[in-house]
Amino acid sequence: MNYAIIAAGEGSRLVQEGIGCPKPLVRLNGVALIDRLIGLFLRHEAASISVIVNEEMKEVQEHLKSIRTEVPFRVVVKSTPSSMHSFYEISRHLRECDRICLTTVDTVFREEEFGEYIRAFMRGGDFDGLMAVTDYIDDEKPLYVQTDSRLMIRDFVDESRLCKYVSGGVYCLNNACLDVLDRAMADGVSRMRNYQRRLAGEGLRLRAYPFSKIIDVDHAEDIRTAELFLQGFRS
Known about the structure:
This protein is α/β, with parallel strands linked by helices. It has helices at 12-16, 33-43, 58-65, 83-91, 111-123, 175-186, 192-201, 220-234; strands spanning 2-6, 27-28, 31-32, 48-53, 73-77, 99-104, 107-109, 129-134, 144-147, 153-157, 165-174, 206-211, 214-216.
């Protein structure tokens, strides 16, 4: 599996709330967010790992330079206006990959569930993308996922009381999904949620994969919430 991490956001809300380090280096139970993801990927059949950070993140860039892995490890340094643009920049290095798993640096989930998710994607099926979803909603602006009885995704919407799940910020995709990304960029689409809508709109087969809980570390209080979540599953 070829993994990619979007770690290019400024983390402005964390800074405003007194967190002094860049978001990728925020520690959960003593482990930086970026290091936690890299470790997870290495334990779950990583063939390569790619990370994108913005140009101002000097501390993160230096940290990533110190990382040594047994698989190809690529760092892309570029400031972008949105996560979708960051994905596009890093996708240029993933064109030869049959399958990729993309995640944002601030997503926190149970490792056991993640391993099952990756295995499900590797087994394949009637889908072009396997999208992590959860019924635990802690995002200020969640992206709701409309599914049918087989968990095939029909659409992504900003508001809906009828949807059980929201997007979890983890995406397993094949090459057809990267082709849609190119077209979306050419058409001036921005934001990951609009890219996901484009995938569904172009008829790609997307299946939802439920996680019990996925936490986004956007605020200072989320750090402790995520730490307790991980401690609870360990114990």
